[in-house]
UniProtKB/TrEMBL annotation:
PANTHER family: GEM-ASSOCIATED PROTEIN 2, GEMIN2. It comes from the Eukaryota. This is Survival motor neuron interacting protein 1-domain-containing protein. Belongs to the gemin-2 family. It comes from Dunaliella salina (Green alga).
Length: 224
């Protein structure tokens, strides 16, 4: 991955992020195997409901719906905050690294609501939704928060080893992230940097699609 931040601080952040992400994945795996898994906080679209998936996958819901959980006028989807995985002792983590400062922030209400949803998805659906997010990014001018949150949530439940098609999607994702980083106008202070770093950490480091990021982790990184 080109244009990596300064080595020392970024290395520390990357190792911590991967560790926390691995712990989240373990907790979600345990939760998904329980007899009564956490119910999704909003209705899952039917397989052929293209409009519903567009709203759900690509953030085409009004901001007030995400904040208040009020149903969408176009189909009843709601992103209501719920106890979700946090209520089961699972805390989503998304330490976000900006090149000039290290900041710790949660993944946001959307990502926290997505985690109970992805628990109900089989791996074919997870792979397909990841591919949709990557395809959407190919023509996007910037990385939107909802896209980074979806990739984070899907990565949290994506099983290893990944299928060849999923691996191809992750490689395409890393190429797009590198391209977006190269085009940043504000350099290390660009607000896109934290989002791109999280996506790169998931796809490039945790799922092994970037040799440079893997090298920064070292051989003792725990990435089940």
């Amino acid at each position: 991955m080109s244009s990596l931040p300064a080595a020392t601080a970024f290395n520390k952040w990357l190792r911590q992020f991967v560790h926390e992400f691995a712990q989240l994945r373990k907790a979600l795996t345990a939760l998904s195997s329980q007899p009564s898994p956490v119910p999704p906080p909003f209705q899952v679209p039917k397989p052929f409901d293209s409009e519903g998936w567009e709203r759900l996958c690509f953030g085409r819901l009004r901001a007030e719906e995400v904040q208040s959980g009020s149903p969408s006028q176009a189909g009843g989807l709601s992103l209501a905050a719920s106890p979700g995985v946090a209520g089961q002792g699972v805390t989503p983590t998304a330490s976000v690294y900006g090149q000039t400062a290290t900041r710790r922030v949660g993944p946001g209400p959307l990502a926290e609501s997505l985690l109970p949803l992805v628990l109900h998805m089989d791996q074919v659906v997870v792979g397909n939704l990841l591919a949709r997010q990557v395809a959407e990014l190919q023509t996007a001018s910037s990385m939107q928060p909802f896209c980074a949150q979806w990739i984070y949530a899907l990565g949290a439940i994506l099983e290893k080893p990944v299928h060849a098609d999923v691996s191809a999607s992750l490689r395409a994702l890393m190429k797009r992230v590198a391209s977006m980083r190269a085009g940043l106008l504000q350099g290390p202070d660009d607000p896109q940097v934290p989002l791109l770093n999280v996506v790169a950490a998931v796809a490039g480091a945790y799922f092994g699609q970037d040799a440079e990021l893997l090298g920064l982790l070292g051989t003792d990184a725990d990435m089940p």
